[in-house]
Amino acid sequence: MIKLLRCLPPLLAVLILSGWSAPAAAWGDTGHRLVCEIALRNLTPAASAEVARLLQANATIRGANSRNLQYGWACTYPDHPADGAPPALARRSPLHFANYPRTLLAVTASSGCGVASQCVVTAIPGEIAVLGRAGASDADRAAAIVYLGHWLGDIHQPLHSSYEDDRGGNDINVSGLCTSNLHSAWDTCILQNRSQLGAGPSVDAVRALAATWSEAASDVDRALWLSSLPWQWSAESYAVTVRPEIGYCTIVEQACRYSAAQLVLAQGQPKRSLPIDAAYMDRAFPIIRQRIVMGGIRLAHRLNLALDPAYRG
Fold it and tell me: What is the Cα–Cα distance from 140 to 126, expressed in whole angstroms?
């Protein structure tokens, strides 16, 4: 782990060693809604009005769920696309994550999408380009703000910057307070448990928590978070992923192995199991909270830049 830290930018190393305890599933629906609700609270009036206008402009997204006229709910659309939607309005599965080689010590500007040509790192500037494209239709720009919101959530979920063979922890079983798999634990279970939102929280409950978390982010935090690019957001997530206490992998000979005995999870091999207890949640929840807040603040900044000509950051 020390060798891994030496390869990281100083800020990332500090965050890892401190447990990321500064004010702070990708996410399940609740996590995505929190990211986008936090973003709404940090938009300029002009950008906020444009988001509301654009959400009316895409009939496919609007028709998939009556609540998709609310940005926090529309941001879940890429996980629940309309039946028969065209490719541009489908799930776009490869873009929700980044898969890196297990021998990668730290994500850098040259890491790209790791083992693929497209990923969440490249998806983000793609949506921003649509928002800035002369002649782009309102329907296309509406899709861009929805998918951008979703990608900002995905890239801040640590296990969305991980490895292909175990599907970002989907093939690591968990037991105890969470009972599905490690990816699901980070997507949904820990957040629902520790935020006290529970399953299927109301609109008002999500908005209230988003307001509380957003207000807790200091001006210093915000300035630090905005001085970065999408590859660095993935680097932050990846740095969490390889922390020993996360239990996602075992560092052996410069590789983040599926287990001490297995570099990768091959077809037919037994899956590992990891207990999720109160102590694990105590370690994980502050990270989850901070990643959601960071995602929301960064999303607001990108939307303000794209939708408010007077915004200067």
Answer: 12
